[in-house]
Amino acid sequence: MKNNKTYDIGKQLNDILGEVRTLTGVIGILFGFLLATAFSAQNLNELENKLLIGALYCSIISLGIFIMPIIYHHLEFPYKNIEKFIKRFHRFTMLGFVPFVLTFFFAIYLAFERLAPGNGHIGILTIVITLILVYYLRK
Predict the structure, then answer these.
(1) Which pTM value belongs to this model?
(2) Given a cut of 70, is residue 68 above it in pLDDT?
(3) CB under 8 Å, gap of 24 or more: what pairs does 52-57 form?
(4) What's the total number of domains in the chain?
(5) In terms of residue numbers, what domain contains 48?
């Protein structure tokens, strides 16, 4: 029975590390695109400039938070209390989702504003409506 619990904990830890790898990669790539946009964008108006800066800051914060479980993993290995360790991983990940989502909202709004000035809200509404539909249709 104890071996089964150890296997489940090991699987959970592997799943969490996989999620962190994926999230770190996604936000790192998005940060690279935003940084490239910051250097190549011309004639940004005040709103677009603020959106770009906000997206860059949120992506940096999100990247930092998503990297923390990896650092924590190396600092605490071998683990004394694996359940406590996994709960902390989850807290880091959930905390990192806030700036992660804000980065996407700012980036989508910025993209729509650049492509069709005055229509940035359409991109945000599309994402929100899609997320609500997916949430209700998940069952």
Answers:
(1) 0.77
(2) yes
(3) 52/106, 52/110, 54/102, 54/106, 55/102, 55/103, 55/106, 55/107, 55/110, 56/31
(4) 1
(5) 2-136
